[in-house]
Write a structure and sequence with these properties.
With about 140 residues, this protein is mostly helical. The protein has helices spanning about 1-25, 35-60, 90-105, 110-130.
């Protein structure tokens, strides 16, 4: 997790420096500083810093992975990485429901926002409980 934290924290520093340079650069123009761009860069930097700090705290709690060590070998990273669903239609349902909700927000149709929100909840529940119900249940 150290490598991920370095990447996110370096991008955050870059974004903060870019925000400062952008503010100074646009402040010297006739229209004055561009607050929208400056704010977007600062918020993007804060988001990257938040992710980077999360990885810093996680890296302290777990033992170093092979990619975090200078003497790490490729074969040490071999093996099972986790469980990945071989095929699921629920992400498509979540995306469709989120699109309906977004469409309702764009046109300010409260009935569509509510319908889309309920569909998002239902699709998310289906995705979450996919392996606990139906034919994919493992019986021990």
């Amino acid at each position: 997790m150290k490598s991920e934290s370095r990447i996110f924290n370096l991008v955050a520093v870059f974004l903060f420096i870019t925000a400062a340079v952008y503010y100074i650069w646009t402040d010297n123009s006739d229209e004055g500083a561009d607050w929208v761009g400056t704010t977007a860069l600062i918020l993007s930097g804060l988001l990257c810093a938040m992710c980077g700090m999360y990885f810093v705290f996680i890296a302290r709690r777990i033992e170093p992975r092979p990619e975090d060590r200078a003497d790490g070998e490729i074969h040490e990273g071999a093996g099972e990485l986790g469980f990945f669903s071989p095929g699921s239609y629920w992400p498509l349902g979540v995306a469709a429901a989120a699109s309906i909700t977004g469409l309702g927000v764009a046109f300010w149709a409260p009935w569509l926002i509510i319908t889309g929100g309920l569909a998002v909840l239902a699709a998310t529940a289906g995705l979450l409980f996919e392996y606990y119900t139906g034919s994919r249940v493992e019986h021990h």
